[in-house]
Specification:
275 residues; alpha+beta; five-stranded mixed beta sheet; 9 strands; 12% strand; globular
């Protein structure tokens, strides 16, 4: 009598293997996701460190930090790489990172250093827009070259000698837009950002007040995930301070509570004040 040897698996055995794999995936997926998030946070921190170094070197060479935005003039030479953003919403000119092109070298050309790896802006039209969903400089320090409306953020950029508390005053941070100020970090009523086309991107990701602002319509629906959930573990942001040091802090720690309601001005050294 010939005995037939069984080959392969039975249906039950296959189901057991599949169930085991599914269980392992269920256990490992959250850990892998957390590891990826942590890695992106480290890359973001490295970007901030390099940008702070470039900003500091610029200040040492020129006596001030760069303009946040030097607006387009008739005799202006286009910035390195050309004008950025969307002409319908973003003003044309030299942005703060254009002034750093000589210091950043190849990193500027690739733009990787200017992009937060945890960026989560959902607007398909902003995939290549470097101004939205990456890093923003503190407007009271890196002011605009022109005034728009009732606006304190214009004039000549500050140097370290004009910043009263450099170790406490932020210079650059994870941001919804390439410019940010205390007005995007408070829930006190008042004008947020004079560029109405980009006011929905004017926020610090992960702040609790963003939920209220989303309901009021002052944050773009495209930015909901970024603004509410933040980019890094525990709703933290990477911050570069004016004295050159870097820190990972809770987004809510940047919230502005000390407000002069009469003049609608900032009293917190964290954000500096030009009034």
């Amino acid at each position: 009598m010939t005995i037939m040897k069984r080959s392969g698996f039975t249906l039950v055995e296959l189901l057991v293997v599949i169930a085991s794999i599914a269980t392992l995936m269920g256990v490992l997926a959250p850990a892998l996701g957390a590891a990826r998030q942590q890695t992106r946070g480290v890359v973001c921190e490295s970007n901030i460190k390099q940008l702070v170094l470039a900003l500091t070197m610029y200040e040492q060479e020129n006596g001030t930090f760069p303009y946040g935005l030097f607006h387009l003039t008739f005799d202006m030479v286009p910035p390195p790489g050309g004008y950025v953003g969307n002409r319908a919403y973003d003003k044309k000119g030299w942005w703060w990172f254009h002034f750093l092109a000589g210091t950043l070298g190849e990193d500027f050309g690739k733009e990787t250093i200017l992009r937060c790896p945890s960026r989560s802006i959902r607007d398909p039209g902003l995939t290549e827009n470097i101004l939205c969903g990456n890093y923003g400089v503190n407007r009271p320090i890196c002011v605009d070259s022109l005034q728009f409306g009732d606006n304190e953020f214009f004039g000549r950029p500050l140097g370290l000698n004009r910043i009263r508390h450099p170790a406490q005053t932020l210079l650059i941070v994870d941001s919804g837009y390439s410019l940010i100020s205390w007005r995007g970090a408070t829930n006190v009523s008042g004008p947020l950002f004079e560029n109405s086309g980009r006011k929905g991107y004017f926020y610090v990701p992960g702040m609790r007040i963003n939920e209220e602002r989303l309901q009021k319509g002052t944050i773009s629906p495209y930015c909901e995930y970024d603004a509410i959930n933040g980019r890094h573990p525990n709703k933290t942001v990477n911050v570069g301070f004016s004295d050159g040091h870097i820190a990972r802090v809770r987004a809510d720690d940047l919230f502005v509570e000390k407000i002069d309601d009469y003049n609608y001005s900032n009293l917190s050294p964290l954000w500096q004040s030009n009034k």
